């Protein structure tokens, strides 16, 4: 998220609603990374996250005049994005849902040693890093949608329980309790199976060819390792950070944010170049 101070942002929103396209573009581009990273963690893959982000950003544009300033702008954006993603059915894992049982069985019993070399001359260490980022992100798909939202808001974005409760329609206490349980479930799974983050026996370098064979990664398209990491502070600023509710908050280093794809910015610019701003003013 571009570092726009709150007062300046509110002025830009007023100008955008009044019909200024440049201000509208600045406002929308300021939240594209937030929207993309939330979508990526909720949906699991870069292509699905990009498609959903386009939908969400268009919703923000068409509903911008309804932003009433009774919360921060980022909280309002979170609410729109979360509501959209909780009901989003066009992504890959909506058609092929995962479970911890399936994931664990695949790690324990996948015939990795029977697969030939499929690396296509791409450095195996690079493919292993891609698999690590992809695998741990896809692991979130083993959670139900609501639990995934809670985990992502509390662990990646570090949204405090009052704000997260408002976004999800639950009490702060319920949010804190559920977040702690979900993080423990994730940590227990990683502890049992993952040798990259915990003490499990699974190491990505040994599963590269198996992952390629099963279309989990592709040497021709390394989404995670080619993406540009960014700091959370430049992407979103909430009024209060997540309270310390357990000792697991730093266990999930794979929840790093990335710069959204250039195609997403180009989509917004093309849309704004060809649309009437009456959609913002009259929504």
Automatic annotation (TrEMBL):
GO biological process, one term: DNA-templated transcription initiation
RNA polymerase sigma-70 region domain span: 30-89
Superkingdom per UniProt: Bacteria
Keyword Transcription regulation: yes
Listed GO MF terms: sigma factor activity
Pfam family, one: Sigma70_r2
Keywords: Sigma factor, Transcription, Transcription regulation
Similarity comment: family membership: Belongs to the sigma-70 factor family. ECF subfamily.
PANTHER family given in the database record: RNA POLYMERASE ECF-TYPE SIGMA FACTO, RNA POLYMERASE SIGMA FACTOR
NCBIfam families: sigma70-ECF
Protein name in the entry: RNA polymerase sigma factor
Provenance organism: Flavonifractor plautii (Fusobacterium plautii)
